[in-house]
Amino acid sequence: MTDTFGPSAPQADPPPPGTAFGLVGLDRRVIWQSDPQMLDMLTACAPEPCDAERVAQRFGADRMSAALQRGWLQSPDELCRDYHLVSGEIEITSHCNWGCRFCPVSMDPKPPRTMPMDLFEEIIAKLADVGTIDYVTFQHYNEPTLDKHFTDRLEVLARHRMQLALYTNASALTPDKIDALRRLGVLRHLIVNMPSIDPGEFAELTASRSYPHVVRNLEQAITAGFRVQIVVNGAGERLARNLEGLTRRYAPLGVEVFPSLTCDRAGDGPAEYFQDVHVDGQLTGCGWPVHHANISVTGDMFLCCNDYYQRETFGNIRDGSIHDLMTSDAAVRLRRQVFGVADAAAGFLCRRCHNQQLDFPAREFRPIATFG
């Protein structure tokens, strides 16, 4: 399975003797099963809606009833209403001071906008009420530390006991911001975008001359004792070389250095990283729309972090609770397209995304119906 931080394993106790298979729920917990006919029944019902009476006759009424009670079999009308949020991805600003060549900002930067504090406070209160949120982020192709309300937002998180995964280029991660993060204790993880250790190549890749500021601020964050990751964007030999250089410099300091999956953001990214994905037929599901609440600078909720232009929206945070919005007809309609329950429009975002390719190595799952 994948998360904002990368691969993660489902949560499971060791399978007991006689286990035939396991099912992973939206809460990422595994339920072990010893009855292989349960899997046969789920496999038979997966490709298309089935008549309940015929399913009961073929596999047994008790087995079908157990699957219904657990939600493993559902009425087609109820499919895609469930969700299990683990993060709130909040666009606190719409501005970035870099123009990274692997990012849509380099092609079409958005006008600077800042989320009002009253809207932010409403979002955090509603996310806290969900009860399953592990962390929030402050980004959607922006630089959070440019936000004039940055410290005020940290104080809101502290009041609601919410954790922050701070994605940043570190160019404006000044000592006062580092001190606020340390004092308020809200930082779960600091993830720094640093594509190269070489100042000249860094400037080329980011369209920025902030290399000295980034290095200084990054070192101060490390000294502060934060858990720090460096994410290295790129592709091919250049990525391998930069990954090696950054690892050699920062891994001895306790920093985790990882390559990032640089992609074309469902067709909206630069041509250099164009993946030319187009998925025909029924789509086959994705965990992002059920695990992550994406909220724009104006409070709109939208489908996915790959939606740079926020085309696929399904309501505004002011319109109700998170639960109201996640179970709204508009939200369910979008998820039904993502999961192939309904036909997706020809221009639907997910048709251009690598997460819909069955052979994509970082897929969260493959639906039962796609196996032979």
TrEMBL record:
SUPFAM superfamilies per the record?
Answer: Radical SAM enzymes
Ranges for domain Radical SAM core: 90-231
Asked whether the keyword Iron-sulfur is assigned, the reply is yes
Looking at the keywords, is Protein transport present? Answer: no
Q: Which InterPro entries match?
A: 4Fe4S-binding_SPASM_dom (IPR023885), Aldolase_TIM (IPR013785), Radical_SAM_PqqE_MftC-like (IPR050377), rSAM (IPR007197), rSAM_sf (IPR058240)
Q: Give start and end of each 4Fe4S-binding SPASM domain.
A: 286-353
Keyword terms of this UniProt record:
Iron, Iron-sulfur, Metal-binding, S-adenosyl-L-methionine
Q: Which PANTHER family match?
A: PQQA PEPTIDE CYCLASE (PTHR11228:SF7), RADICAL SAM DOMAIN PROTEIN (PTHR11228)
- From the Swiss-Prot or TrEMBL record, give the protein name: Radical SAM/SPASM domain-containing protein
